[in-house]
Amino acid sequence: MANSAQARKRARQADGQRSHNASLRSTLRTAIKRVRQAIEAGDKVAAQGVFQQSVAVLDRISDKKIIHKNKASRTKSRLSAQIKAIAAA
Description:
α1 packs parallel to α3. This protein has one domain: Up-down Bundle (Methane Monooxygenase Hydroxylase, Chain G, domain 1), CATH 1.20.58. The chain is mostly helical and 89 residues long. It has 3 helices and no strands.
């Protein structure tokens, strides 16, 4: 446990930041889940619309360094490829 006033304050701040980051991560997971549900439904137009919204969420969260920018890019790429595969099927 923190012994100095400074360390106690940093522990409080870290706890608040951790809960804020967890909230943002949850928002990210929900956005990705919505795209996957639209892809599974086979509705390409709806999937593209939801994908555009989730791209904004991915970019915003990667800019805040909650996730790495390469992970955001990789996720966008994979979701985009799955949406394109709907038309081929």
